[in-house]
Amino acid sequence: MTEQLKAIEQRAGEELSKAADLKSLEEIRVKFLGKKGEITGILKQMGKLSAEERPVIGQLANKVRADIEAALSSAQEKLKAKAEAMKLEAERIDVTLPGKAPKLGRPHPLNATLAEVEEVFLGMGFDIVEGPEVETDHYCFEALNMPKHHPARDTQDTFYINENVLLRTQTSSVQIRTMEKLKPPIRIISPGRVYRSDAVDATHSPLFHQIEGLVIDKGVTMADLKGTLELLLKRLYGEETQLRFRPHHFPYTEPSAEVDLMCFNCHGKGCSMCKQEGYVELLGSGMVHPKVLEGCGIDPEIYSGFAFGIGLERITMGRYNINDMRLLYENDMRFLEQF
Ligand code: DAH
């Protein structure tokens, strides 16, 4: 039995030296020290021994058990230390590496332009008001002197919710809503989304943005309209900006004018950018039609006013030299980061 015990101790030592993880250590513990383990097996046979041999073998068995236990716990310590070292190595940080700068956001070019427009008008004492995008035929067309079957509706086909409810094609609807609610003097701008059933291309989108303007007071003239728009466009495009007022027709203004901007590229001479025109069309405007005023309960004999509607995309594209409207909606960071 002495021989057996010594052999057990030796085998346990060999197996321990090969054990690579905590699981194999546990297997070794069970194999040698467990209830059905090899040492227990020896102790069970002690009955066969003589009275002199018994204490000697008993002592040896206890010593072998204690030795194996000690070897097990030192192997366990070593494995734990190794695992800890590997973890530290894996999580190691190089504090000398340069930091990663956090990415800063920036306003979208449409929002940046809108913010500037709003600032200009707030500075002139205008209020900023909002109107609904889902609008009735009445506010979008009828009250703007565009009855059903009016030809001016042709260019403003839109998405109908039912016969009388639609996605507004123009922010001009907010003119009516404002005049119904407020008494003159009125000075507002109203930015927002508008919709038309247009196919997408470089200059069209079924959803785009307009900024409506409306001023109603006693003695308001076309000169006020001109001065206001000139101030705005010089702020947006620079002091040397030149405008051209061109007669036009809108059912809700009389007289009406379209306002063009002198082409930056050729300064009015005509080039490929302005299609040889020398000017690029920018916005619609005019003096509010007496019928429209009357419809809103404002006496055209006492009050007059001007209105205008600007495409936000158009003025943004002009400012930043963007030649395709779709770029403004695609949210491609490579494009947006340039502004
Ligand atoms: N509503 C017009 C459009 O969508 C733009 C416009 C023209 C607005 C003349 C006005 C205006 O307020 O007086 O094309």
Total E-strand runs: 10
Overall radius of gyration: 43 Å
Number of helices: 11
Which CATH first-tier class of the largest domain would you pick? Alpha Beta
What is the makeup of the main sheet? 7 strands, mixed
Proportion of residues in β-strands: 15-25%
Q: Could you tell me how far the N terminus lies from the C terminus, measured between alpha carbons in angstroms? A: 89 Å
List of distinct ligands in this structure: 3,4-dihydroxyphenylalanine
Per the CATH scheme, the topology name of the largest domain is BirA Bifunctional Protein, domain 2
Strand order of the largest sheet: 1-5-6-10-9-8-7
| CATH H-level homologous superfamily name of the largest domain | Bira Bifunctional Protein, Domain 2
Share in helix: 40-55%
Elements, N to C (H/E)? HHHHHEEHEEHEEHEEEHEHH
Note the overall shape. Answer: rod-shaped
Average pLDDT value? 93
CATH architecture of the largest domain: 2-Layer Sandwich
Protein architecture, described:
The chain has about 350 residues and is α+β, with helices and mostly antiparallel strands. Helices cover about 40% and strands about 20% of the residues. A 7-stranded mixed β-sheet has the order 1-5-6-10-9-8-7, with helices on both faces. A 3-stranded antiparallel β-sheet has the order 2-4-3. The radius of gyration is 43 Å and the shape is rod-shaped. Bound molecules: 3,4-dihydroxyphenylalanine (DAH).
Key traits:
10 strands, rod-shaped, alpha+beta, binds 3,4-dihydroxyphenylalanine, seven-stranded mixed β-sheet, BirA Bifunctional Protein, domain 2, 2 domains, 339 residues
